[in-house]
Amino acid sequence: MITDVSFFYKGGRAGVLLIHGLTGTPAEMQILGKGLHKHGFTVYGMQLAGHCGDENDLLATSWHDWYDSVIRAADRLLEHVDTMFVGGLSMGAVLALKYTADHPENVKGVGVYGPTFVYDGWSIPRYIQRSVFLLKWFKALGIFQKSVFIERPPYGLKDERIRKTVSESMLSGDSAKGGLAGNPLGSLAEMQELAKQTAAQLHDIKAPCLIMHSNHDDIANMETNSGLVARSVSGPVKMIPLENSYHMITIDRDRKKVIQESANFFGALCTKDQLVPPAVNPFIREIA
User: Fold this and answer.
1) pTM over the 0.70 mark
2) Known catalytic residue: 214?
3) Is 54 annotated in the active site?
4) HEC per residue, 54-67
5) Do residues 182 and 192 touch, judged by C-beta distance below 8 A?
6) Which entry of 37, 39, 247, 262 is annotated as an active-site residue?
7) One of 90, 167, 169, 187 is an active-site residue; which one?
8) What is the CATH number of domain 7-280?
9) Which of 63, 71, 97, 132 yields a CA-CA distance of 20 to 30 A from 48?
């Protein structure tokens, strides 16, 4: 059964839509969401269709379903704000970029966190990297769709304490908290198609992009993935390499830097009267 673990923090008239990654959960965006809310933003951490259930729930959806859920979430957020930013982690970053290309009138700026167009990080086995191109053929033939590529340590996390917490939730089957432990090949094929579609649209993006990616990303190489975005979009780009995280930069050791840089970047693109001053913000707490 799918559990709804999306979150909505009411702040000012400038809002940020946060999008998690494939097999992930809104929980991976929550620290960033709380940090942005502390800076006065309204924040909606949405939940992608088919996620936070089991593998069959995910396989019952396509990239079109995931993208449709982004559109619905953006429409909901726009009911509460005058200025909207979108940000995503991993596949969530790809979805954020596609939404921006398709709806430029709605997006003031984009947070691109560890975008994943290609699984080519140092922890991804070579046979997986070399066989990804076969996924579309498997999909067309209807074979191996329920086969699963099981993630292995370090699970995108350099911080051992956080890795232990997340992996325990993931391996126990608590997908609402830790995400799924494996990627069904059918869903990877859908993501591959999404990445292909979005890559072809990157030149349409004129909104300012903040790109943050770890130099040590175990899932998605920075040059291959963030480099593609930086080279292809038409708008201004601020690229920030990170040195103390792996793939999950929104919850790993660089999380405070991700929050601060994001708040500064988005804040510079909206008027101060659109943000709730910290003194009256009802959600003030230290970010761990």
Assistant:
1) yes
2) no
3) no
4) CHHHHHCCCHHHHH
5) no
6) 247
7) 90
8) 3.40.50.1820
9) 132
